[in-house]
Design a protein that fits this description.
Layout lengths: L8 E3 L6 H12 L7 E3 L6 H11 L7 E3 L7 H13 L5 E3 L7 H11 L7 E2 L1
Parallel strand pairs: 1-2, 2-3, 3-4, 4-5
Helix pairs in contact: 1-2, 2-3, 3-4
Length: 122
């Protein structure tokens, strides 16, 4: 469940939510208009959960996202590329230690070429 009210930062790093939890958080983020920073590092989201999460961020106000150490790969990379081409608010994303291939990175970079306000990647 995502926060209500004025909460602008959530750090859930290290708490296993798995693929199903990634999808659930994605659904909740789809209607988010307040949360600016989300840390879901080391949550075992997996590739399908990551793809669902990214799909929900195509429009939104999230600025900082940490999804390091979650097993995100091909399907997530494609969803992130699509999200980056339409989401103007996301400025920093940490995808470290996910095992992304060179092809996955190239897919993400394609989305970055359409993103106007990008500030930081790691």
């Amino acid at each position: 469940m995502m926060p209500r009210g004025n909460l602008s930062r959530v750090r859930r790093g290290g708490i296993t939510v798995a693929e199903k939890g990634g999808r659930a958080r994605g659904q909740a983020l789809g209607s988010n208009r307040i949360l600016k920073e989300l840390d879901l590092s080391r949550c075992s989201i997996g590739d399908k959960g990551g793809a669902a999460l990214f799909a929900s961020l195509e429009e939104g106000c999230l600025v900082i996202l940490n999804l390091s150490w979650n097993g995100l790969r091909g399907e997530s990379a494609k969803a992130l590329s699509k999200t980056l081409s339409s989401n103007g608010s996301l400025q920093s994303i940490d995808l470290g230690h996910n095992g992304l291939s060179d092809q996955d990175a190239a897919t993400i970079i394609m989305g970055l070429t359409h993103h106007g306000g990008w500030m930081e990647t790691s």
